[in-house]
Specification:
The chain is about 70% helix and about 0% strand. With about 500 residues, the chain is mainly alpha-helical. It folds into three domains: about 190 residues, no CATH class; about 160 residues, no CATH class; about 80 residues, no CATH class. Helix 4 packs antiparallel against helix 5 and helix 5 crosses helix 6.
């Protein structure tokens, strides 16, 4: 009976929230500030920086995105404070997410690797939105706990669209000027006269070649008009309205959280699925110990140990992720069943060995072919999978343990640390070191200079003079072609373009 009442209250609350979200609020000064800030941010992006992912040798945003993110977050928090909706000390998770988001946003002003910028983009905006939801009280649940995180993620994407039409509704409700019959007649007359003029112009063009040539020249001149201006205006309007919707939703109506419901499933079904999976994993782990970890002569003879070992790591990483998506629901549905928890622990332990197998293969692959951005991120992903599996083992032993906040904080902190570790310079340092040692026979300078100017100090360390000069010359040409606009600027481009570039790297000023 109590569950029915709770479900009814939750449905009523959700229905009230949806009605409030769909009805336009009172339009006031803060709504105008939100709209101006959002349009300013979108205009800077589409006018000061054309989307680099669509351009050859383009860039994703640099310092411009940092300033845009900080501007929108600051406006939203200041508005919430003025409205008395800032939660303050009670939203520790929100402040943590905001700190992470601002730190990742600052990376756009410091580093210039487009791959890392692209991967950071969803993290930056998602963390910023979740922080605002928490700090302004829109998300009443703890931001880092399972339910609060799930609720914030569910409302993140819809918040870009739920209120984007409010400025249009506000303009519609503005007082209208008195109707002018002359202007109305002028518009109707122009609309009716247009087809008549087109028909007459066509007949006159057929009758007189000189008149036809004059019209043709006039239409050809229209082709020289830059249509990208209109396109950027449309993008600015659409992007600005979406950002306005996010800011408005982030300080408006609290989300209606779902009531926690006790979900259970048959322990026999869960145990059967887990036991079948464990059998397959156990066989795979046996093969890893026999042929991979100990370098069996049979694998060398039949397949070739190097070829066998340096393959399959991406598939194994994906398999470990899929395993986590199976174990966690099983722990939630069958946490009262000891056999289910035991089998989950067994599958998690086997998956740890599989994760180590993926790392073992990746290490051999890196020794043969060197580092890349994708391989560095994959190594970070393996570490996070290992931490998640260890958390699953803890959850199996103690079902009441709250591991979600710790895992979320750990993933965000390590990802931020990875960004500030200067991935491009780390890759270049490793490549140059193994090349100087003779372990790597061929240095792929083209890949290194495709990263960012952060590789320049490491290219100077190449011991072979001919290879070093060729790499630096390739860097000069490549970076000159990729020279960023002001919106895309970052500290690494400033260092590469400064007076010290000529003396430090043997280069003229890049620009």
């Amino acid at each position: 009976m109590e569950n029915d009442v709770s479900r009814f209250e939750n449905e009523v609350t959700t229905d009230m929230e949806e009605k409030a979200m769909s009805s336009p609020p009172a339009w006031g000064a803060w709504e105008w500030i939100f709209l101006f800030s959002a349009l300013l941010a979108a205009g800077c992006y589409f006018f000061a920086h054309f989307p680099g992912i669509l351009e050859r040798n383009g860039h994703l945003p640099g310092v411009g995105l940092t300033l845009t993110q900080w501007l929108l977050a600051g406006v939203s928090l200041f508005a919430a404070r003025k409205k008395g909706k800032l939660r303050g000390k009670s939203a520790a998770g929100g402040w943590f997410l905001l700190a992470i988001a601002l730190a990742l946003g600052l990376c756009y002003s410091v580093f210039a690797d487009d791959a890392m910028r692209l991967m950071n983009l969803p993290v930056v905006w998602t963390a910023t939105a979740l922080a605002l939801f928490s700090l302004t009280g829109v998300n009443p649940l703890p931001a880092l706990e399972g339910r609060g995180l799930r609720l914030g993620l569910r409302r993140f994407l819809p918040s870009f669209f739920t209120r984007w039409a409010l400025p249009l509704k506000a303009l519609k409700n503005l007082p209208r000027p008195a109707k002018n019959e002359k202007l109305r007649g002028l518009g109707v007359g122009a609309l009716l006269g247009l087809p008549v003029v087109l028909l007459a112009a066509g007949l006159l063009s057929s009758a007189d070649p000189m008149f036809s040539s004059l019209l043709t020249t006039g239409f050809q001149s229209l082709d020289r008009i830059d249509g990208s201006l209109l396109l950027r205006l449309l993008y600015t309007l659409a992007g600005g309205l979406c950002l306005f919707s996010l800011l408005s939703a982030g300080t408006a109506i609290p989300f209606a959280p779902e009531e926690p419901r006790e979900r259970r499933a048959s322990p026999v079904i869960l145990s059967t699925v887990l036991a079948m999976l464990a059998a397959v994993y156990a066989l795979f782990v046996y093969v890893q110990f026999r042929y991979l970890f100990f370098g069996s002569e049979e694998a060398i003879r039949e397949i070739g140990y190097a070829e066998y070992a340096r393959s399959g790591f991406f598939q194994l990483v994906l398999l470990a992720i899929l395993t986590l998506t199976l174990i966690l629901p099983c722990l939630s549905l069958g946490k009262t069943s000891a056999p289910v928890r035991l089998l989950c622990a067994f599958v998690a332990a086997l998956t740890i060995v599989i994760d180590y197998s993926a790392f073992f293969r990746m290490r051999l692959y890196i020794q043969a072919y060197g580092l890349s951005v994708l391989r560095v991120v994959t190594l970070w992903g393996m570490l996070m999978i290992l931490c998640a599996l260890a958390a699953c083992l803890l959850k199996c032993a103690s079902p009441s343990a709250r591991v979600c906040p710790v895992l979320t904080a750990l993933a965000l902190c390590t990802w931020t640390a990875l960004n500030y570790g200067n991935v491009d310079r780390l890759i270049a340092r490793y490549q140059v070191s193994v090349y100087n040692e003779g372990t790597l026979t061929d240095l792929d300078a083209s890949y290194l200079v495709s990263l960012s100017p952060d590789v320049l100090p490491e290219l100077e360390r190449i011991e072979d003079g001919i290879t070093r000069d060729r790499a630096l010359e390739k860097a000069r040409v490549t970076f000159s072609e990729r020279f960023p606009r002001p919106y895309d600027w970052s500290l690494c481009w400033l260092k590469a373009n400064g007076p010290q570039a000529e003396t430090a790297y043997g280069l003229d000023t890049i620009r």
